[in-house]
Design a protein that fits this description.
By secondary structure, the chain is of the alpha+beta class. It has a single domain, classed as Jelly Rolls (Sandwich), CATH 2.60.120. 17% of the residues lie in helices and 30% in strands. The radius of gyration is 19 Å and the shape is globular.
Length: 204
């Protein structure tokens, strides 16, 4: 009998190229204010896509997310989503982040604005690590505790917000710049006693 491998309950990460005016956006990033240590790699503004200079990115980014939601995850076409928070991350040479996840949201996105080729490294960590630690002869999606993406400028990433992830160390001599944002479903979704209307809640 042939062995059949079934991947149950997979977490899906989407990576694609996203065209935008990089020079214009990057020049504006250096004009904004960043938070003080220990969070000095994050912009003070957590609604950066509402700022005029960045606002032109919002609809195209959401268009790509809707493609991911409808064509990959197969959510119904009438399901609506909204960006809740958005910010710029500046990872200076030698900088990185702790392992973390994003709360109070469903999906997160990252657009890489400025980086050396294959130097925008973000790793994802498996929260359900096995009790026994064995050394694989070859690492794959079935036996790995973490997976690292080495990305380029204009790469756009979508992933479930509960996934543990980490900005890997910037081992170049220049800043790495990225735009991050969080997304939730809005209006009515779910069914029966698991239904909710986010618009109604916001009016309370």
């Amino acid at each position: 009998m042939e062995t059949k491998i079934i991947q149950l309950f997979s977490k899906v990460v989407s990576v694609e190229n996203f065209e935008f005016d990089k020079e214009k956006i990057v020049s504006e990033v250096y004009k904004i204010k960043f938070r003080k240590p220990p969070a000095d790699n994050q912009s003070e503004c957590l609604q950066i896509l509402e700022e005029k200079i960045f606002n032109d990115l919002k609809k195209p980014l959401m268009d790509r997310f809707y493609y991911f939601a409808h064509n990959v995850l197969k959510y119904k076409k009438n399901q609506e989503f909204a960006i809740t928070t958005s910010w710029i991350t500046k990872t200076v040479p030698g900088g990185n982040s702790r392992v973390h996840h994003h709360r109070n949201c469903m999906f997160s996105g990252v657009l890489y604005l400025k980086t050396n080729p294959k130097k925008a490294k973000i790793s994802f960590w498996n929260p359900h690590q096995q009790g026994f630690y064995l050394i694989p002869s070859e690492y794959n999606i079935y036996n790995s505790d973490n997976y690292c993406f080495a990305l380029n400028e204009k790469n756009l990433l979508f992933f479930p917000s509960e996934m543990q992830h980490k900005i890997e160390t910037n081992d170049t001599d220049s800043d790495r710049l990225s735009l991050a944002f969080n997304i939730i479903p809005i209006n009515k979704f779910g069914e029966a006693d698991s239904s909710v209307n986010i618009a109604l809640i916001n009016d309370l």
